[in-house]
Every structure is written in structure tokens, then in C-alpha cells.
Design a protein that fits this description.
Blueprint: E1 34-36, E2 41-45, E3 57-66, E4 74-80, E5 85-92, E6 100-105, H1 110-115, E7 120-125, E8 138-146
């Protein structure tokens, strides 16, 4: 006879390398600058000491790209504050095997960013729907700075 009031057994949570941990700005178990099939995002602390009330831009630099199959590469950029996540924008590599520098307007969000205790930059690879990411694809990010 089945128990109708019993709780199901609790299973310990398993680490998931593809899901950000909101309790830290660290990229779990991986390189904080390199994204690949097993790590589809990077997370890093943003230094607020360079952020001024006149800051207008967030600049992100892609250092190297390994994409021999020329798969389309699109990324979503957001800033995670303790109270909310601000979506900053998206960018695509073109050609899809070339690094570059990408600039996002943040001037209307500077006060929120300045008031936050800490700020995490999150860059997430957004593969096309139903597209498998190759084992050979990797992207290394360089600096992220306020301008």
C-alpha cells in the first residue's frame, strides 16, 4: 500500500557546470576567461572603482576564437547585481572565427550599478536553436572595462 502523505526521498543536488551559481562571481570549475562546449558562459567580477557617473559604455574584448567549422557565435551580455540582472545586449562574432571588441551603452544604468554592493559580468553563448556546439569551438575573453 502506497503512502499518500509521505514525502519523496530527497536527493542531494548535483553540480551543473552549465548553470551559473548566483552566490559567487566565479565561473564554476573552469577557466574564468574561456568558453567552450562544456562551459557556455563566463562570470567575472566587475571593478566598480573605475565606474563614474559619466560612464557611458561597457567594453568587452574577445582575445581568441577557435571555430574551425565557422559556427555562428552569438553572446548575451548581462550584469548581475544582488537585487536584479540587467541585460546589456547581445553581440555576434563576424566572421565567426575572428576576435573583436564590443561596446554596450550602460549610461542609463550607472546609478543602479554604483549603488550595488557587487557586480558580476555574465557573458553567455547563445547557440542557434537545435544547433550542436562542436567540441572544437572555444572563445577566450580578455578585458571587460567601463568607459
Amino acid at each position: 500500500m502506497a503512502c499518500n502523505t509521505c514525502s519523496p526521498p530527497q536527493r542531494p543536488s548535483l553540480p551543473n557546470p552549465g548553470v551559473p551559481d548566483r552566490t559567487t562571481c566565479q565561473t564554476p570549475g573552469g577557466n574564468p576567461n574561456t568558453m567552450d562546449k562544456n562551459q557556455m558562459f563566463i562570470r567575472r567580477d566587475m571593478d566598480k572603482s573605475q565606474l563614474k557617473s559619466t560612464t557611458e559604455w561597457l567594453v568587452i574584448s574577445v582575445k581568441t576564437v577557435n571555430n574551425p567549422g565557422l559556427e555562428p557565435m552569438t553572446f548575451e551580455v548581462s550584469l548581475e547585481l544582488p537585487s536584479e540582472t540587467l541585460t546589456v545586449g547581445t553581440f555576434s562574432l563576424f566572421p565567426p572565427n575572428e576576435p573583436g571588441v564590443f561596446t554596450f551603452r550602460v549610461n542609463n544604468q550607472v546609478q543602479k550599478i554604483q549603488d550595488a554592493q557587487n557586480v558580476c559580468l555574465i557573458v553567455k553563448h547563445m547557440p542557434e536553436a537545435d544547433a550542436a556546439v562542436s567540441d572544437k569551438v572555444s572563445v577566450t575573453f580578455d578585458e571587460a572595462r567601463w568607459q
